[in-house]
TrEMBL record:
Pfam families: ABC_tran, TOBE_2. InterPro entries: AAA+_ATPase (IPR003593), ABC_SmlMolc_Importer (IPR050093), ABC_transporter-like_ATP-bd (IPR003439), ABC_transporter-like_CS (IPR017871), Mo/tungstate-bd_C_term_dom (IPR008995), NA-bd_OB-fold (IPR012340), P-loop_NTPase (IPR027417), Transp-assoc_OB_typ2 (IPR013611). GO terms for biological process: quaternary ammonium group transport. SUPFAM superfamilies: MOP-like, P-loop containing nucleoside triphosphate hydrolases. It comes from Rhizobium sophoriradicis. Gene3D superfamilies: 2.40.50.100, Nucleic acid-binding proteins (2.40.50.140), P-loop containing nucleotide triphosphate hydrolases (3.40.50.300). The keyword Nucleotide-binding applies. Belongs to the ABC transporter superfamily. This is Polyamine ABC transporter ATP-binding protein. Residues 4-234 form the ABC transporter domain.
Length: 344
């Protein structure tokens, strides 16, 4: 099978299980982001894919070959890790050519490839520059070019953009995605930044406690989170418990007439995205709460509403700005369409 497959991967550090039975298939040419909070095991998983760590159990296959125990240098990988910095004493061109030089490629081949790669990262004519004269973003592009010099079978990135400031980081995310679209190299990137993952990846793999909680497209992860961890970790959400009481579905002790639960379900956790919370005048059958805070962030307006002791957050565009003020009583009319039913 072409692409990368992880089967029942376990990594144990003494009694501590950093990666716990991970199964994942990355189709050839896909861009996958491993996303999760600090310590969830993403770097450990990437290091096993790279061959920098051996799994305690499980199997790694690349394009049908078992590479679980293959040394890193025989895996034909391109890697951009935070710790793998550019060589400061070499020029840009020498840095990019380095993987070709140590593989004994001719000077002509090295020069040709350096030229191609510099054009690809939008730095033509930079071969003779000193690395120390580059900006942070340019350095990162050179590190990417160096990793791609050998046309790797697999491209691995560990927090590749974390040293850059927010604006440059966003631009580089788009650049990396576009580069991937042009080259089609199977790519796995580790990040703790969900915007970064959603910008770049075909598949976002959300991890927690060494396990995969959900692996799906950015849209699916956001619109149909598998559980409350994913719902809460990706973007903002309102998590509430719904209970069947009498004939109606109640939230925080208030009946919400337009909501239903599947037959036989007595209680469930609902995830309601802030953009699906519409505020209006209080009315029967809707939740009633009190506005506690309004935050105008320019492009979006966030309104915080206290409903029975729990804070709801509603987000709207400036055009749809709700006409509400702090202290005002408001209604939140919810329908099934606004909610994702999680644990039942
Ligand atoms: N060599 C090691 N020995 C012992 N424990 C380790 C070792 N490497 C990692 N761990 C532990 O394994 C867990 C997962 O670490 P890992 O670096 O994979 O997390 P991560 O998700 O990449 O986090 P971060 O975003 O902070 O880098 C952590 O609790 C970490 O302390």
């Amino acid at each position: 099978m072409s692409g990368l497959t992880l089967q029942n991967i376990v990594k144990q550090f003494g009694a501590f299980r950093a990666v716990d039975n991970v199964d994942l298939t990355v189709p050839h040419g896909a861009f996958v982001c491993l996303l999760g909070p600090s310590g969830c095991g993403k770097t450990t998983l990437l290091r096993m894919i790279a061959g920098l760590d051996l799994p305690t159990a499980g199997r790694v296959t690349l394009n049908g070959n078992d590479i679980t125990r293959t040394p890193t240098h025989q895996r034909e990988l391109g890697m951009v890790f935070q710790s793998l910095a550019l060589f400061p004493h070499l020029t840009v061109g020498e840095n990019i050519a380095y993987p070709l030089r140590i593989r004994g490629r001719s000077k002509e081949e090295q020069a040709k490839r350096v030229e191609e790669l510099l054009a690809m990262i939008y730095l033509p004519g930079y071969a003779d520059r000193a690395v120390s004269k580059l900006s942070g973003g340019q350095r990162q592009r050179v590190a990417i070019a160096r990793a791609l010099a050998i046309s790797p079978k697999l491209f691995l990135l560990d927090e590749p953009l974390s040293a850059l400031d927010a604006k440059l980081r966003e631009a580089m995310q788009v650049e990396l995605r576009q580069l991937h679209q042009r080259l089609g190299i199977t790519t796995i990137a580790v990040t703790h930044d969900q915007r970064e993952a959603m910008t770049m990846a075909d598949t976002v793999v959300v991890m927690n406690g060494g396990q995969i909680r959900q692996a799906a497209s950015p849209t699916e992860i956001y619109r149909r989170p598998a559980d409350s961890f994913v719902a809460d970790f990706i973007g903002q959400t309102n998590l509430v418990e719904a209970r069947r009481e009498g004939g109606a579905v109640n939230i925080l002790g208030q009946p919400v007439t337009a909501l239903s639960l599947s037959a036989g379900v007595e209680r469930a956790t609902l995830s309601i995205r802030p953009e699906d919370v519409r505020l209006g005048p209080p009315k029967a059958g809707a939740l009633t709460g009190e506005v506690t805070f309004v935050r105008d962030l320019g492009g979006v307006i966030e309104t915080f509403v206290n409903v029975g002791g729990q804070q709801f957050i509603a987000v709207s565009t400036p055009r749809e700005r709700p006409d509400v003020a702090v202290g005002q009583k408001v209604g939140i009319a919810l329908t099934d369409k606004d909610c994702v039913v999680l644990e039942q």
